[in-house]
Amino acid sequence: MSEKNITILGIESSCDDTSAAIIRDGVILSNVVANQKVHEEFGGVVPELASRAHQQNIIPVVDLAIKRAGIDRNEISAVAFTRGPGLLGSLLVGTSFAKGFSLSLNIPLIEVNHLQGHVLALFIREKEGFFNPPVFPFLCLLVSGGNSQIILVKDYLHMEVIGQTIDDAAGEAFDKCAKVMGLPYPGGPHVDRLAKEGNPHRFEFSKPRIPGLDYSFSGLKTNFLYFLRDQIKENENFVEENKTDLCASLQYTIVDILLNKLKRAARETGIREITVAGGVSANSGLRNALTENAGKYAWNLVIPKFEYTMDNAAMIAITGYYKFLQHEFIGQDAVPFARTQL
Ligand code: KG4
Predict the structure, then answer these.
(1) Which of 35, 310, 312 to mutate to test the pocket of ligand 1 (most atoms within 8 A of CB)?
(2) Residue 137, preceding bond cis, omega within 30 degrees?
(3) 188 CA distance to ligand 1 centroid (A)?
């Protein structure tokens, strides 16, 4: 098989974004993401509505990705899809579509772990512009709505989780605390925006004492909830009157928890090549803290482009590309996994 003109169609449908992307020889040609607005009024993702929306979106999204890439579908070498972790009903839509696509064009099928995709998003190359991928081995702080992990990345396809949350993810802490303040879903970006105008030291929230490199965010969430409940008893306008300070103090606490373990991981492994991935890596407080620490500890910090940090199919396609080079294909009997490790 020629190692040139390898064109991968990536499909991502693990949660509430339907996405398709085309990557050729590691260079991105298109990345289409359809967000699902249907969940907003419920303050969180409703799994059954998500899978139905994926069914409606998947064909137009793939069609658009192929058109935007300016290729013919017969030029596609393989189809890569997110097999897990994620919502089972959502994953089923992408998995079934990918299988059908591979069968109809008689091209290989490649399964991708969603978390590995988030890490390899750091290697998406654009046609033009600066390309500055990290050097192996590196540490990746993977922070999203469903995960908070520190990953030791040895190679494109060899990664080891050296720390992870024992309960909630950082994104969940942002979203759930935002919800109790009456902010729309997902709350992370709203907290980020409001935090810019607030005082991060006005309120102090609890930080976990978890051994090793693991995280915990459920205590902070409960602490935040009880604090608001008590304050609202005294003053029913407490949240409205203190929203920016609440957001700034909450963000400061989450970022501090994340950075403490990351610094420890860098110290213990001796690795100074540091990266970040996942939706929460869009957070400006986290980005600032990473940059500050990079200066202080001489880290070589690599932060992915904003559009590749959120759930997207370009990260699935780039992972598919590296798996294609190793001929790591999977059969038509592949089933999705709601829960799976790296
Ligand atoms: O990786 P991602 O797109 O998908 C899931 O894992 O679901 O991450 C989504 C998460 C949500 O929790 C969202 O609130 C959070 O990333 N997020 C942010 C920001 N942008 C997205 N959290 C804090 N600050 C942000 N700017």
Answers:
(1) 310
(2) yes
(3) 6
Which of 12, 15, 118, 174 for mutating ligand 1's site (highest number of atoms within 8 Å of CB)?
174
pLDDT, tens only, 263-315:
999 999 999 999 999 999 999 999 999 999 999 999 999 998 889 999 999 99
Give the pTM: 0.94
Distance between CA 82 and CA 88 in Å, rounded? 11
Q: How far apart are CA 309 and CA 280, in angstroms?
A: 8
Between CA 206 and CA 194 the distance in angstroms is 21
Residue 32 · residue 58 · CB < 8 Å: no
**Do 279 and 184 share a structural domain?**
yes
Same domain, yes or no: 175 and 92 = no
Residues in the ligand 1 pocket, defined by CB under 6 Å: 15, 144-146, 171, 174-175, 186-189, 192, 278-280, 282-283, 310-311
pLDDT in tens, 205-218: 999 999 999 999 99
Between CA 134 and CA 136, with CA 135 as vertex, the angle to 5 degrees is: 120
- Domain span holding position 259: 138-303
Instruction: Tell me: do 178 and 43 sit in the same domain.
Output: no
